[in-house]
Amino acid sequence: MKRNLIVFLLALAMVSVAACGPADPTPAPDVTPVTPTDTDDGPHRGGALRIATPTSPVSPDPQLEQTNAKYASAMTDTLMLADADGVPQPFLARDYEVSEDGTVYTFYLQEGVIFHDGEPFNAEAAKFSIIRFLDPDLATRKEPALMKIADIEALDTYTLRITLDAPDALFLQAMSNPPLGMVSPKAVEELGDAFEEAPVGLGPYKYKSFIPDELTVLERFDDYWQGTPYMDEIHWVVIPELTTRVMELEMGNVDVLAFLDARNALALEEKGFVMIEDLRFANFWLAMNLEHPLLSDVRMRRAMCHALDRQLLIDEVTYGLADPGYAGIQPASWAFDPTVEVCSYDPEKAGELLDDMGWHLADDGFRYNDEGTRLHFEWSAANRPDNLIPTEIAQQLFRDVGIDSSLTMGDHIWRLTSARTGDFEITMWGLSASINPVAQADRSHSEFYWNPNRHYIEEIDDLLERVALETDEAVIKEMLSEFQHLAAEHLPIVWLYHNSTITVLNPRVKDLFIDPSNYFDFSRTWLEQE
Amino acid sequence: MSQDTTMSVSRSGWARFGVQVRKSLPAKVGVLILFVLTLMILLAPQLSTHDPIRQHLRHRLEPPSADFILGTDHLGRDIFSRVVYGSRISVSIGAAGVLTGMIIGIGLGLLGGYYGGNLDHAILWLCDLLLAFPGILLAITIMSVLGSGIINVVIAIGIWSVPTVARLTRGQVLSLKSAEFIDSARAIGAGDARILSVHLLSNTFGVLLVFATMRIATAILTVAALSFLGLGIAPPTPEWGSMVAIGREYIREAPHVITAPGIAIFLTVMACNFLGDTLQDALDPRMVGRE
Q1: Please, which residues have CB within 8 angstroms of residue A309's CB and are 6 or more apart in sequence?
Q2: A372/A384 Cα distance (integer angstroms)
C-alpha cells in the first residue's frame, strides 16, 4: 500500500512539472473514409489529409500567409509556378513575354478558370488581386521585386501587362510565390474586411472553416481548372508541442509534419514514414550586431568565425542533413564559387586574431584586455531546441578560444523585436529556402527585409543592385563569384550551414509535390485506402 | 516577563519538534533528504564527477554507465554533475525568493497590523491585488516584464510570497498588539520600533517559520516551472526545471534525461512539505496536549 502511495506521489510530481508546458489541443478531426475509384492501385477519391502545425495562421486569407503555412497553395494559384528545379514556369498565365529591356511583362492567361464563388478568372481579376496584394495597408509579404511594379494593365480579357520601373531578375520568382495568388474580386468587394475570415480563391481546395489556434479546414473544389482534386478535405490541426506532433503522426492521427527537425525525421523514417528532404537551400547563420563596437571590427568577426566548427554543428544539430555555409551562396547552387576562401574552423587562428586585438588569455580560460575587461558577448536565443542546441554548442566553441558568453532566452516575438531594434549582440538565425542564387545573395544586401546583423557594406550593396538588373546567366555567375569573395572578405554574416527543410508523411499520402521553396502542391494528392 | 514567555514557548516548541521527528517516519525521511541535499549543495565540486557545463558531444544521450553515473543529456553533459550543481541553483533561488518575500511581507504586515488606518488599508489593498493573480501566473507575468535571469527569478518568487506573508504577519500582530505583555513593554517605555521588532516579530516567528518551510517547497516548484517554460534560468547553468524541460524532448529515446532532475524536484519538495507539517504540529500550542 505504502509502495503504491510512493509510486503515485512520484508520478504526480513528474506530471506537475510536465503540466506546466503548453496545452495540446489535439481535436481528432473527422475523417471521411477513403473510397476506391475505378482501379484499386491508382489514385483514390475521398479522405481528409491532416497536417499538424505548431501554430495557427492569423487568418485563412491566402494573401496574408506569412510563414509558409502551406494553405495558400491549396486555396489559390499564381500566374507563375516554380518547377522541381525552382524555375518559375507559366501556370495561370499559360504563356508570357518579356520586353528586351526587361521591364515589360505580358502574361497570356488561362481561359475557363473560375473562382470558388463561380466568378470567372480574367485579366481584370488578376490585376485586382495583384493590386490588393501590394496594398501597403494589407500585411502581405511583399518581395522587393514586386515593389518595382509601376503599372498593371488589362489589355484584353485574358492579357495582362505589368510594367516595372527597372528590370529585376527575381520578378518572375516573386510572381510564383503562392501568397500572391488570385482572389475573387467580387468576394473581396462584397465582404470587405470579412474576406479575411472567409476567403475565396481558385485553388484545388476551398475555404470551409477556421478556428484560430485549433483547426483550419479546406474542402475539395470540384470545378478546379486542372481537374477535380482527389481528397475531400485538408485539415490543419494545431499541435504546439513537437513531441505530441510526432506521436500523433505515429498513431495515425495526422498525416503530414512540415518543418520537422532532423532527429525526429530520421527516427520516423526508420519506422517506415516517408521523409522528404529538400535541396538544402535554407540558411542558418551567426548574426552579429555590427553596431556593437567590438563586432564592427572584422577581425573580431573573423576570430568568431574561426572558432566555430561548422562540421560539428552540422553533425550534431542537423544529423548530417546540411551543407556547410560559406559566403552566402549555397554549395548546391550553380552560382557557387568553390574557390572562395572562408574562415574555416581554426581555434589557433582565432586565438591569434584575438591576441592581436589585445584580448589575452588569462588563467581562468577567458580573455581580458589591458583594462581587465573580460571578452564577453550576450546571446539572445529562442526557447526552442532547434535554436538552443546550436547556440549552446557555439557557446562552448567560443569558450574554447576564451570568449565568454551568456544566454538570454525569450519567445519568437521577443527575438524578432530585439533583432529589429538592434537590442542584441549575437544570435543564431535561420531563414527558409530560396533556390535562386540572386535571391540568396540578396540576403546579404543591407536593405534586405531581414537584416538583423545591421550590416552595411557599400561594395556588396552596389554589386547586388547591379546583379538584380542582369538577366544573362553567365554574367550573373561572374558577378556572384565577385560577391562571394567580397562576402568572405568583409564577413557581414557568418554563414554556418544550409540545412534541409524536412517534411515527413504517412506512407498513405501519395503524390504530394513539394517545390524547392517548400510550397506544397495538393492538386493531385490522394490518400491510399487504409 | 514577556521575553521569558516567548523563549520558553520556543524551547518547548523545538523540543516538541525533536519528538515529532523521532516519532514520525515522514519527518525522518524529510530530515534525511534535506541532510543529503545540504551535503550536495555544500560539496557539489567534490561530489560531481564532471564539469556540469562541459559538453561531450560524442557521448550524447548515453544511458547511465561507469563514466556517467546518471547518463548524459542531449549535449553529452553529465547528468549526475548537473543534478548535483543544479541543487545549488534550484534550492538557493527558491530559498532566496522566499526570504525576499518574507522580509518585505513581514515588514508590511507588522506596519499595517500595528498602525492600522489608511496605511493598513493601502497594504491590504496591495495584498489583495497581488493575491488576485494565481501564483504561477503572477510569476510568469513578472518574468515576462523583467526577463529571464537568476535575480529576476528571486524577485518574482519574492513578490509572489509578499501578500501571503504580509497577511499572515498582520493577523498575528492584530491578535497580539492588545496583549498584556505589549502593554507592559509600552509601560516600561519601549518605543514602537522595539515593540515591533522584538516583541511582535518574535511572537510571529513560529507561524512564519512553518509558512516559509512550506513555501520553499512551492518556490522550488515555481523555479522549476519557470525554467521549464524557458522563463527562468538560461542554459548552460544547471537547473532542475530546465533539465526537465530539455529531457521532455527526449523522453521516448532517453528517459533517463528527465528522470534524475524530476526525482530531485520531487524528493526536495516532498522533504520540505514533510518538515513543514512536522514543524506546524510541533509549534502549534493546540498540539501540546495530544502528544
Answers
A1: A345, A397
A2: 35
- What's the pLDDT score for residue A9? 45
Segment A243-265 mean pLDDT: 92
DSSP H stretches of helix in B50-134 = 79-115, 117-131
- Cβ atoms < 10 Å from Cβ of B11: 10
Name the burial class of residue A372, with classes exposed (0-12), middle (13-18) and buried (19+) by CB atoms within 10 angstroms of its CB.
exposed
- Provide the pLDDT for residue B284: 66
**Chain B interface, best mutation among A409, A412, A413, A415, by max B CB count within 10 A:** A409
Sign of the Cα torsion B80, B81, B85, B90 reads: negative
Facing B234 at nearest CB: one of A10, A20, A407: A407
Contacting B with CB below 8 Å, chain A residues are: 9-10, 13-14, 16-18, 20-21, 242-243, 267, 312, 316, 381, 383, 385, 388-389, 392-393, 395-396, 406-411
When mean pLDDT is compared across A107-121, A310-324, A410-424, B96-110, the lowest value belongs to A410-424
ipTM: 0.73
Residue of B nearest to A407 (CA): B234
Compute the radius of gyration of chain A from its Cα atoms: 25
* The pairing of beta strand A376-382 with beta strand A426-431: parallel
Q: Measure Cα distances from A256 to A48, A183, A248, B156 in Å.
A: 11, 27, 10, 41
Question: B229 and A409 in contact (C-beta within 8 Å)?
Answer: no
Between the alpha carbon of residue B174 and those of residues A191, B103, B110, B167, B171, the distances in Å are 65, 19, 9, 10, 5
- List, for residues B140-166, the tens digit of each pLDDT value: 888 888 877 788 889 999 999 999 999
Instruction: Kindly report, residue by residue over A360-409, the tens digit of the pLDDT.
Output: 999 999 999 999 999 999 999 888 888 889 999 999 999 999 999 998 88
- Here the cell at position A360 is 589575452
Closest CA to B124 of B156, B115, B207: B115
Query: Which residues sit opposite A283 in a β-bridge?
Result: A431
